Amino acid sequence: MALVLTAFTGGVIFLAMGKDPSTALYIYFVEPLTTTSGLSEVAVKAGPLILIGIGLSFGFRAGIWNIGAEGQYIAGAIAGGGLAVYFHDSESTLLLPAMLVLGTLGGMTWAAVPALLKTRFN
Predict the structure, then answer these.
(1) Mind telling me which residue stretches traverse the membrane in this protein (predicted)?
(2) In a domain, 100, yes or no
(3) Do 77 and 122 share a domain, yes or no?
């Protein structure tokens, strides 16, 4: 139902812009799945979301509700990526493990705020 409403709304918007809705919807929904570069882009975009979903499944099985997983992922990516940018000239073999640790700490820090509020005020 949501996909149909999305396609319909998108078609109306493209018509209002004077564009052919069938061509636009083909480019959005079909073309990424029919070309090699499109499939690789879908995999690049879907990979992190799949990892987030797998991580959330463990929490949900434990009865812990977490709606901030994507934000935790982004905070970790910013922290780990920031370290890589800061040490861009370094050839140390410790940089990648340090990025992983800092990325983990970034995500944990982002998750700590609602966790603290829940344990303190719930």
Answers:
(1) 42-60, 72-88, 94-117
(2) yes
(3) yes
Q: Are residues 114 and 72 in the same domain?
A: yes
Residue 1 lies in a domain: yes
Helix ranges, 30-68 (H)? 36-61
Place 122 in a pLDDT band, splitting at 50, 70 and 90. confident
Rounded Cα distance between 75 and 60, Å, is 21
Predicted TM-score (pTM) of the model is 0.70
Cβ atoms 110, 71 nearer than 8 A: yes
CA-based max dimension of the chain: 55
Token digits of residue 70 = 């994507």
Burial string for 78-93 (b: 16+ CB within 10 Å, else e) reads ebbeebeeeeeeeeee
Which domain, by its residues, includes 27?
1-34
Q: Which of 79, 80, 72 is nearest to 107 (CA)?
A: 72
- pLDDT given at position 100: 97
Please tell me the distance from the alpha carbon of residue 79 to that of residue 103, in angstroms, as a whole number: 5
Paired tokens of 44 = 């690049």
Tally of domains in the chain: 2
Asked if 71 and 29 sit in the same domain, the reply is: no
